[in-house]
Amino acid sequence: MPDTGKKLLSGFSHLYYQEVEDTSSTYKGVTGSTAVRVEGAQSCSATVNKDTLKVAADDNSGYYSEGTFTDGELTITVAGMKLADLSKLAGATYTEDTLTMDETEVDAAPEVSLSFSGLLAAGEGYRLFRYYNARLTSFQAGDLNTRGESTEVASIELTFAFGGRAVDGKFRTMHDVDKNATTAMNTWLTTIPAVPAA
What we know:
Elements: E1 13-22, E2 27-29, E3 36-38, E4 41-57, E5 60-78, H1 83-90, E6 93-95, E7 100-102, E8 112-119, E9 125-141, E10 156-163, E11 172-178, H2 182-190
Antiparallel strand pairs: 1-2, 1-3, 1-8, 4-5, 5-10, 6-7, 8-9, 9-10, 9-11
């Protein structure tokens, strides 16, 4: 796909998560885990926080300045979500026989990789995103109201904190693909790039 310069995004879909093992020497999907698609993706916003380092010289307080990544936050809204997936992301306990999610005060959300796509406004393809190390920090359902004649549904808002992976500090990758490269897109979204490479 040729690079045409301006790349405006107009959509959000193909949301996947997978548990990862992230150490100073290894980054990979947790043994036995696979990428899981979350249906009903509606919106996503990301905030990247940086510390600014300034060095004064030549009577100029901003002689040298650079931003150093500290952390980030992703807010993702989905139309609905299976309790099994929500339990996995939250570190809660899910019981398949009773379709029950139990939460406790000491639940610990696992480290996961998040990947998804944004539709390029020109219709020429997709921009793919991967966040290498994220944890669910909170979730909440929208306001619940008696149905009546309303067609509104209560969406679920997921908030993730993300950071750089321990092995090399990489926290995000973006990749543009052609609209017809669906197989390549799905492979990219569902494959954890292990370090060292398998």
